[in-house]
Structure formats: structure tokens, C-alpha cells
Amino acid sequence: MANLDQSLLEQAEVICKSRGVRFTPQRKRVYELICANEGASSAYDLLEKLKQSEPQAKPPTIYRALDFLLEQGLIHRVESENSFISCCSCSVNKHYSHLLICDQCGNVTELQDDSLIALLENNAEKHGFRITNHVIETHGTCHKCLGDMKVQDR
């Protein structure tokens, strides 16, 4: 896999080993497929790609692998698209992120902004609310697609 950042894979292996959970070849392969994609991957896209190396793979195979990867914090679910991306901070056990989703090309960028999280927690506290989870997804157009649009407008 030419697009795969080997350090991400090594980091995932270390994390799983330190937690005493099995990073099976199948889980590893699904993680590789997610990491190699710039955009978000749906479960069925992943299944089709997995079938190239494992023709017997079925939907439960993918869903079990995705559940494991989500549980370990190695990937994020893009709720609005029911798809998955690799986590840029998988060494942090529990964290919140903000996803920028390009509606043109499907690229997803994960941001970590502690000031935004603090603001959300502060606002929730003012209302007597305790946050247990949140999903922040912002849809729009990435810089690459904006550049392509400017070229087309000429």
C-alpha cells in the first residue's frame, strides 16, 4: 500500500499490544484500507476492497473489525456519512475531534482544538449538562477543490 503511513500502522500495533488486545491480520488489513484512503470509507467500500485479498469476507467481518478499531480509538465514524476515517491522535485514549468534510471530493480532515472543547464544556456546564460524547462535523469545500473551482471559473 503506497499511500499508507507506516508509522500509523506501527503506532496502532503498539497501542493494541500495550492494551492486551489482538490486532489480528484482518483488523490490521481493514485499518490499512481506512488509512490508505484520503476520504472516508463506507463499510461496503471496505468490504469490496477486503474481498480482493479475502474473497470469503462478509459484512459481519467488516463490522466486527470496525467495532474493534472504534473501541480502540484508532478510527472515527463520520456520522453524517456513516463512514470511517483513521484517527490522527490514536495514542490519546479518549479525545474529541472536529471533522472538516469536503462535499466535493470527500476528503476528511480531523482537527484537535482544545479551546473549542473547553468552550463546549463551559457552555454545557452553564446549563447543568455533562457531555459524554460529541460529534462535530463541518461540511464545506476543501482548499484543493476551492482552487479547482477558481481555475474552472476563469
From TrEMBL:
Cofactor requirements of the protein: Zn(2+); Mn(2+); Fe(2+)
Gene Ontology cellular component annotations, sorted alphabetically: cytosol
Q: Is Flavoprotein one of the keywords?
A: no
- What gene name is listed for this protein? fur
Q: Provide the GO biological process annotations.
A: negative regulation of DNA-templated transcription; regulation of secondary metabolite biosynthetic process
Which source organism? Vibrio albus
| UniProt-recorded name of the protein | Ferric uptake regulation protein
The record's NCBIfam families line, in alphabetical order, gives: PRK11639.1
Q: Keywords assigned by UniProt?
A: Cytoplasm, DNA-binding, Iron, Metal-binding, Repressor, Transcription, Transcription regulation, Zinc
